[in-house]
Structures are given as C-alpha cells and as structure tokens.
Specification:
- The complex is a heterodimer of chains A (155) and B (798).
- Chain A has 3 helices and 11 strands.
- Chain A has a single domain, classed as Beta Barrel (OB fold (Dihydrolipoamide Acetyltransferase, E2P)).
- Helix content of chain A is 17%, strand content 45%.
- Chain B is of the alpha+beta class and 798 residues long.
- Chain B has 6 domains: 7-156, Four Helix Bundle (Hemerythrin (Met), subunit A), CATH 1.20.120.160; 162-257, 2-Layer Sandwich (Alpha-Beta Plaits); 266-359, Alpha-Beta Plaits; 422-477; 480-661, Heat Shock Protein 90, CATH 3.30.565.10; 666-795, Roll (SH3 type barrels).
- In chain B, the strands form 6 sheets. Chain B has a 6-stranded mixed β-sheet. A 5-stranded mixed β-sheet of chain B has the order 10-12-13-15-14.
- In chain B, a hairpin with a 2-residue loop joins strand 16 (666-674) and strand 17.
- Chain B starts with 6 loop residues before the first helix and ends in an 8-residue tail after the last strand.
- The chains are: A alpha+beta (155), B alpha+beta (798).
- The A-B interface holds A 46, 48-53, 57, 60-62, 64-69, 98-100, 153 and B 429-431, 433-434, 437, 677, 723-726, 763-770, 772-775, 778, 780, 784-788.
C-alpha cells in the first residue's frame, strides 16, 4: 500500500512540474532549468573556499547539515564577475545523484513551456556559453535558453 | 490472524543471533583446555537462547541443531562427567555454530533456510551417548527422546478422528494467561510465537488482544498479559510444556475448565450453536455482536470459527453455524434469553454440558426476531475473555505453574544494548548540527544587542551546556569498538592451527579502538585474509621452527591504533617472511612488471601479493592458495579509502599495516586559521606547536624550506602556499609552527593562528569535487561554518 502511494505521489509530482521551467538571469541572458530537477532556491550563504579545484567551483556550503558544492555560473560561462547582492540566488539542483548549487544573478520566475514552444538551438556555437544551451524556449516576452545541466556540470 | 511483517523482526533476530554466536565461539575457544562449570552454564544458556529464538522465528534447522547441543550441555551441567574430550567437544560446538552461521547468512540473504542439521545432530548425539556410556550408563539421550515424544503426541492428537464430535472443540478447555519478561521487547511478536506454537495442538483458539500486529497490542500485553482461550485434546501438563517452550516468558497461568472445577465454582457449561437467516448477510459481524453480548457474562468463552473479523468465516457460519463453548455463572434460561434476542436468528441450540441427558433441551424453532439495539463493533480488537484475575488470585490458583515457570524460564541476559539503524543515527547527527546552528542564531541574535539581559544569558549558558552534552553523546553513538572483529580471529587461528598442524598464539592489542560503524563492516574480511595468510604461509610447522631456533609456537600480533586521521591495523607474525624471489618470479610470469626489475623496492614487490589470482602456494589448501583472499584485502580497503603495506624479513616475519582513514568518524580537532579560512587539524597528529624564530629557518639547495627544532630538522609546509590561498600571508614571526606527524614522518606546518580544540564530525567532501591533496574531509563548526580537515598524510607522499 505504502509503496503504491509513494509511487503515485511521485507521479503526481512529476505531472505537476511537467513543462515547468525556472528562469533566471546570468549576466544579460535569461536561462531556464526544468523545475523537476530543482530542489530549492536559497539566498547567498557563506561559502567555504575549497583549494585546488576548478575555478568555477566557488566552494562548499552548509545546507542544513548537508555539504553541497556551489558553482558560480558567471565564472562557468566566463562572464565578468560582480559582487553578490540581495538579488543573487543559489539554485539547488539535483542532477543524477549529485546535489549542487548554481549561483545566478537573479530569479525571474516559473514559466510553462509547451513542447511546441521549445526548439533546438542553432548549430553554430557563437559564444562560449552557447554550448551549455540544450534548447530554446519561447515565452510571451522573449526567449529562454534551456540549460544543459550535463554540460554545465561535467564538461 | 494477519500474516506478520517479519522484516524488522528478522533484522533484530539476525543481530541478536550473530552476537550470541560470536559470544559463544569466544567462550568456547577460551576454554578449550577444560570447561569450568560457569562456562558450561554459559554455553548452555546461549544454546538455549539461540534455540528458543530460532524456534520463535520458525527456523527449525537452527532450532534442531542447537537443541541437541543444548542437550549435550544439559548433561554436562547435570552429571558433571569427568572424562570429557574437551577438544572434541569444542569441535562439535564450533561445527554447530558454523551451521547456525550458514543458516543465518541464508536468512540475511533471504534465500530458503534449508540446511540439513542431521550430521551435526548425529555427531552430537553419538558424543553424548558415548559420554553417558562412560559415565553412569544411564539410558542414552533421554532428553532428546522425550522431546520427540511430545512432538509426536502432539501430531497424533491432531489426527484424532473428529467424526464423533458434536462440537468443533477439543476435550479439554483451557484459558492461559502469559506474562513476558520486562526486557522481552516486542511482546506482540513473542505472543504471536506462543500462539503459533500452540495452535497445531488446539481445536479452536482465540487470543486477546486479537490483533497482534498493532502497537496497541504491545501495551495491552504488558498491562494485562496475553490471554489465549482454546480447547485441545492434550492434557494440562502437555499444554503447559508447550507454552513453556517459548522464551522470555515470566509466568504462565494456565487454567483448565473441567466439570469438577465448574461445579466447584457453581458455573454452568454450555455448548451453543446458532445459525442466521439466509440472506441476513455479514454473518461474521452478527456473530461478533453475539459474542460481544455474551462476554460480560462469561467466565470462559470460545467460539468457532474464531477469526470472525475475516470474511472467510462467513461461509463457515452459513454452513456449520456459529459454535460457542461457554462457561458462565448464568443458568440455562438466562443464557437462552440472552441469545434469543439476536436478530435474524434462524436456529438456536443451547446444550448444557455435563448435564443429564433428560435435561438436554434442543430447540429448533423459528425464533421471532426481536429488535434490540445492537452494538456492532467492527474494528476494535475483540476482548474475548473477561477481565483477567488479579495477580494475587493468580498465584493462589496455580502455584505449581508459577513455580515451574520461574524455574525453567530464568533469564540471565539483560538487554543493555539495542540495535538502531545507521540511517537514524545519520539523521540524528544532521539534526544535531542544525540545532547548534539555530542555537547560535538565537543567542547571538543582532536584535539582542545592547540589551541588558542577565537572566537570559544565564539560561543561554545552561542551554549551551545541554546542547553540547547532547552533541557529544550523539557523536559517540556511531562508534563501534574493533573488539568484535578482532576476537573473531581467535577462532580462525585455532581452526587453522588444528587443520595445518601448526602452533600459534594470537595476541590482540588495542581492540578497544573505536571506528565508525561503516568502516568496521569493510575491514573484517581484510583482517581475516591477512591472518589466514600469515598462518598458512608465514608461520612454519613446529619442527621447522625448532630447527630454525625459534620457539615451536608461532606468534601473531593483531594490533589497532589511532594514528592521526587514520586507524592503523597491524598484523605481525614471526614466521618465515615473504619470499621476494618467488613473488618476483610469479609477477614476471604473470606479466605484472611495469619497470626494470632492479627498480622495484621491497614494498613494491610485496604489493604484488594483493593482485587478483596471485598465489605462490603450489598446493591449494582449504584456507589459501587459490589466490582470492589477498585480492579482497585491496578491494575492501579501496572502498573505504585505505591502503595496505607489507614489510617482511626472511626468517624473521612479516608485518602487514592497513591504514584506514576515519572518513565518517569523529575526531578531536584543532581549529586553525589560515588567511581567514578555518581549517581543522586532527589533534592526534599534532606533536607540538610554537611561535617560530625566523633564524631557525633555512633553505636546502632544492629550495625546500627547513626548520631546526631542538636539534631536529623538519620540512616546512606553509599551508597558505600549499593550498594557494588568496589573501596576504603572515610574516614568519607572527604565525605558528605546528609539528605534525604521520606515523614516523613529521613535518612542520605553518599557520596563522590556533583558534581552539573541538570534537568534530568528519564529513566527506561532496564527490562532485575531485580528491584534493591535503584535504581529507570537512566538518561543521558550532556556528554552522564549514571547516576543511587537513589530511596530514597528504604532506608526505609527494
């Protein structure tokens, strides 16, 4: 019984978050990630620097007793660095078995993108950060670059 | 009765069993030369507990094997025979334990528990028979036969032809009330066992509380005992024996309702049968209300079918009717009136038991339904028997029973330890961390600034103290001593010595070293394989040892010690040592060499023995030579991030050193400050710390910085540079030098400040971040800040 309920809840949760994307800003561009892979969003908390790691790994944070690494998305996309302010957020994502925080400039909101509003990106990768874009989504007032977490985290 | 969820019970069972088996093995091996009375009692007690628990969980193979071993020790205890071959006895007991262990493994893996205990039973029975022949010659294996007698009688009773029965009940009527030991735990499970044991011998059995699966049942049993009402064709004493077989029983109060006892108490006995109208539906619920209405008047009530809450009983009631066996103070008319009020009643038959035939009244008429307010209780457990008698009355009624129960059911183990799942401990640890952080947030809240809060601060101190105590307790809860793992090796050494005709003693040092639970699980096998290897390949035969001028008896030392952020497990033997040439030869043959042969150091050569399939032993024995064992060492150690190192001198012996990091353990740490970041250095690796005099520093030709401390020279590691940290570095005379050591190596670590000592929980760095040299993990400080833990070993293996 309990098992079935759990499955059902999972399925329901998947249904609810289907087609939902969380949009955020990194420098001038609006990026988005599937809501289903987002655990939570927190403000900037003290980050402990870990020496001798990739430059974009900003360090580790204490998320209620769990230690999770955080990636500075500006560094990752080779954008100029700015001071963190009260708009800066850490988007905590769950990708495969990894839990990580992504530091972004600002959260815009959650959008529903139906399948026909999503199209593949152009083949030519003109800028460095373009290689991290999986698809392009269209919303009423512009476009969202759908981020490829696999590429962001593992290339 | 609903099927029991056995999972959690199994877990507890195998935990208990493994502990008992270990304890027994230990006891036995320590006393191989001769069994004192205490030891015999101890073994008997453990065997008895294993048998009882196994029988409770219906693992008959284990129960059977240990039953005979128990018999054997019963004889030893009672008869105290003088000419016992203790060595042989030890073999038999260990064989029996091996069997139990095998079965336990099957249980844990969830495969059918299908071992054959017969060989063990045969051997033990023969051993016992021989003992008895040598002794007084009293008839052999009486106890064993007796047990079988009981069992066979039980099954015979079941085959009694019940064609001539007028009721579905047995000849004797009983009500048993059982109380369990206070430390028994899981009373409902124990009760279920009693129920299950008894059931095959009964005809009609009802228990109270009825639903044993609920937690309420535990409370109810603790409060008023476990009451079973049943009939059986077995006599009082047999039934008592059967009940008494279960473990953890404090007392049994078994009452039989006979004609005589009924007359004495002025009670009347009735056989009742009733049927409901066709189409009345839910006959089980109707029956339930009938029983429920009768209960307040009944001294004893048993009904068939007994599982009224299940729909299956509907069919039975429809075809056979509801049978009730009732003992009550009410007379015939009163009972009849009570029952005839039942609605939808089609047929009612009330027969007074023990009464003369002419007084029998058989009613078979259309009973007019009477509208009576019915209490239909659907879900709450049925309380079948009336309120249990007061304990005083109980004692007076059955003094013999109580005395007997107390005599046989003496329990000596008290439950000082409980098993808790590791995930719960993890959770607790995490919550603890949060509590500490929140505490700091509250007590150092900026809004409090500038206020005079004398009382507040006093309470805060108290709160902090308590939180600190709780934190320390939580941290130590995860630690497990290595003694269990170490002591197991005694058995291996003993067995192998016997099999290989060698002599060796195992010396154990530092077995109380505590290691995190997760690590213990992974180092048991490596230790075992190395010990085996030492005995098989290392220790020579006594005559060879004597010829070489060594004592005939070999010596293996198993030692554990804390060394910095590692636990070292050292296994040393005074055997022949490793044969470097043979290993090299074999490595060459297997194509394992990766560089010119003369460049291999001794340690590198010895590492080959940990390669899969590498054995220099020509003969495969039952212990080693297949080349699997040592391979496991490496694999398991890699899993916990440990290493193994071998030193060996031909003719003198070998030393295996396993270094295991304390990945999940708790360490005493010194919190230090480097360029504003807080790092933690394990206190055990700090030898000294001081403010350096710049004059004592010098450079070697390669540009390595060195320092002279009291005539010794050390390499200097400036943590700021080592980690390439941003921010300004301290001047030498403003900082602190710490001499840190890793085994025999030492290095001088230059840091900015020492902040303080603290017990810290080692957490691993998230695996997304690759391994960093010089960092072994991280920890949360009291204020929620993360501090990286310095890996002392990282400074040495450049």
């Amino acid at each position: 019984m309990a098992l079935m309920d759990h499955d059902m809840m999972e399925r329901r949760a998947a249904d609810i978050t289907k087609n939902l994307y969380l949009a955020f800003v990194i420098e001038d561009e609006q990026y988005a990630v599937e809501v289903s892979s987002i655990k939570e969003i927190i403000g900037v908390v003290p980050i402990t620097i870990v020496p001798q790691t990739e430059r974009y790994i900003k360090g580790i944070i204490n998320l209620r007793g769990d230690i999770i690494p955080v990636i500075d998305m500006r560094t990752r996309f080779m954008k100029p660095l700015v001071e963190y302010d009260d708009q800066t957020c850490i988007v905590v994502v769950l990708y495969q078995e990894y839990i990580l925080g992504l530091i972004v400039d600002q959260i815009i909101g959650v959008y529903t993108l139906e399948e026909d509003a999503i199209s593949p990106p152009p083949n030519a990768k003109l800028s460095y950060s373009n290689q991290f874009v999986k698809n392009i989504g269209r919303k009423e007032d512009g476009i969202l670059l759908l981020m490829d977490l696999e590429k962001v985290l593992f290339t | 009765m609903a099927d029991f969820d056995r999972e959690s019970m199994l877990e507890m069972f195998s935990f208990e069993m493994n502990q008992l088996v270990d304890q027994l093995e230990q006891t036995i091996i320590e006393s191989e030369s001769g069994f004192s009375e205490d030891i015999i009692n101890e073994v008997f007690r453990i065997m008895h507990t294993i048998k009882g628990s196994a029988a409770m969980m219906l693992f008959d193979t284990i129960a059977t094997a240990t039953h005979y071993a128990e018999d054997l020790f019963f004889y030893l205890r009672e008869e105290k025979p003088t000419s016992v071959d203790y060595s042989e006895l030890t073999d038999h007991v260990l064989a029996c334990m091996d069997f139990v262990k095998e079965e336990l493994i099957k249980i844990e893996e969830g495969v059918p528990v299908d071992g054959n205990p017969q060989p063990i039973v045969d051997v033990i029975t023969k051993f016992l028979a021989d003992l008895k022949d040598e002794g007084s010659g009293v008839g052999a294996s009486m106890a064993a036969k007796e047990e079988q007698l009981i069992l066979s009688q039980g099954s015979q009773a079941l085959q009694v032809d019940d064609e001539d029965r007028t009721t579905p009940f047995g000849s004797y009527r009983f009500k048993a009330k059982i109380r369990f030991d206070e430390e028994a735990q899981m009373e409902n499970v124990r009760a279920f066992t009693v129920y299950n044991n008894l059931k095959p011998f009964t005809l009609g059995i009802v228990c109270d509380p009825e639903d044993l699966t609920s937690d309420d049942a535990i409370t109810a049993i603790r409060k008023s005992g476990f009451v079973i009402t049943f009939t059986s064709d077995l006599e009082y004493s047999r039934i008592f024996d059967i009940l008494n077989r279960s473990i953890y029983i404090r007392d049994i109060f078994l009452e039989e309702y006979t004609k005589e006892s009924a007359e004495m108490d002025r009670l009347n006995s009735f056989d009742i049968m009733l049927k409901f109208d066709e189409g009345s539906q839910m006959e089980n619920v109707r029956s339930y209300s009938v029983i429920h209405n009768l209960k307040p008047h009944a001294d004893y009530i048993l009904y068939h079918p007994s599982n009224l809450l299940e729909e299956a009983s509907i069919d039975i009631i429809q075809s056979e009717g509801l049978h009730i066996d009732l003992v009550t103070a009410r007379d015939y008319d009163e009972v009849y009136d009570l029952l005839s009020q039942t609605i939808y009643l089609k047929e009612l038959l009330v027969k007074e038991k023990y009464a003369d035939m002419d007084k029998d009244v058989i009613m078979q008429e259309e009973v007019r339904p009477i509208e009576v307010e019915q209490t239909v209780v659907a879900s709450s457990p049925v309380a079948i028997a009336d309120a249990p008698p007061a304990p005083a009355a109980e004692k007076a009624d059955a003094p013999a029973a109580s005395a007997e129960a107390a005599g046989t059911m003496k329990r000596t183990t008290s439950q000082a330890v409980i098993s808790v799942s590791v995930s719960k401990l993890d959770q607790l640890l995490k919550l603890m961390g949060e509590l500490v952080i929140v505490e700091a947030m509250v007590t150092q809240n900026p809004e409090l600034e500038g206020l005079t809060l004398e009382n507040f601060h006093r309470e805060v101190r108290q709160l902090k103290k308590i939180i600190k105590d709780v934190q320390e307790t939580v941290m130590t809860m995860r630690l497990v001593s290595l003694s269990g793992t170490f002591l197991k090796m005694n058995r291996i050494v003993r067995d192998m010595c016997k099999a290989l005709n060698k002599e060796a003693v195992l010396e154990i040092i530092g077995e109380n070293t505590e290691v995190d639970k997760n690590i213990i699980e992974h180092i048991g096998d490596p230790i075992m394989h190395i010990v085996r290897n030492s005995l098989d390949h290392g220790i020579e035969k006594p005559e060879v040892r004597a010829a070489a001028g060594k004592s005939e008896r070999g010596r293996i030392v198993l030692e554990a010690r804390n060394a910095g952020s590692e636990v070292w497990i050292i296994i040393e033997d005074d055997g022949a040592g490793l044969n470097k040439e043979r290993i090299m030869e074999k490595a060459r043959a297997n194509g394992l060499l990766r560089k010119p042969e003369d460049e291999y150091t001794d340690r590198e050569i010895f590492q080959f023995i940990f390669m899969p399939g590498f054995s220099t032993n020509e003969v495969v024995t039952s212990y080693s030579g297949r080349g699997v064992g040592m391979d496991v060492v490496n694999k398991n150690l890699e899993f916990v991030g440990g290493t193994v190192m071998v030193d060996s001198v031909p003719g003198v012996g070998s030393i295996f050193t396993m270094k295991i990091p304390l990945t999940l353990a708790i360490i005493e740490g010194m919190i230090i400050n480097v360029s504003g970041a807080k790092y933690t250095v394990p206190i055990v690796s700090i030898r000294d710390s001081f403010r350096p005099n710049p004059e004592h520093l010098f450079m070697d030709p390669n540009g390595n910085e060195m320092i002279t401390v009291r005539g010794d020279h050390y390499n200097v590691v400036r943590l700021h540079e080592f980690f390439a940290l941003e921010g300004a570095a301290r001047e030498t005379h403003e900082g602190i030098m710490m001499i840190i050591e890793n085994g025999e190596d030492a290095v001088c670590l230059f840091v900015d400040d020492l902040i303080g000592e603290q017990q810290v929980v080692v957490k691993s760095i998230p695996k997304y971040i690759k391994k960093i040299r010089g960092i072994s993990g991280c920890t949360l400080l009291g204020n929620g800040e993360i501090s990286l833990i310095v890996d002392v070993a990282g400074f040495f293996d450049r």
